[in-house]
Specification:
By secondary structure, the protein is an all-alpha fold. Helices cover 80% and strands 0% of the residues. The chain contains three helices and no strands. It has helices at residues 10-22, 26-56, 60-81. It is elongated, with a radius of gyration of 15 Å.
C-alpha cells in the first residue's frame, strides 16, 4: 500500500510545539490536535494493511516501514499527551 499523505507535516508539528511552549488559544490547539489525530488514524490503517500484506509476502522493506510508522505513532502520541 502507498504511504499515507499526512495533513500534519513539519509545519504543523512546529506549530503544536510553539503552542505548548508559548501558549495559544484552545481552539487553535484543538485544530492542530485534530489534524494529528486524523494522521494517526491514517497511519494505523496503513500499518494494518502492510502487516496483512507482509503475512502473504514478507519483506524487510515492509518491516522497516512498519517500524518507522510505529515510531511516528509513538512520537505523536507523546506530543498529544502533552
Amino acid at each position: 500500500p502507498p504511504q499515507p499523505v499526512l495533513d500534519c507535516d513539519d509545519t504543523c508539528m512546529t506549530a503544536i510545539m510553539e503552542c505548548l511552549d508559548e501558549g495559544c488559544s484552545v481552539e487553535a490547539l484543538l485544530k492542530l490536535d485534530n489534524k494529528l489525530a486524523v494522521d494517526e488514524q491514517k497511519i494505523v490503517d496503513t500499518v494494518e494493511q502492510i502487516k496483512a500484506a507482509n503475512k502473504m509476502e514478507p519483506s524487510d522493506e515492509n518491516a522497516g516501514t512498519v517500524a518507522w510508522l510505529d515510531n511516528f505513532l509513538s512520537r505523536s502520541g507523546s506530543l498529544r499527551g502533552q
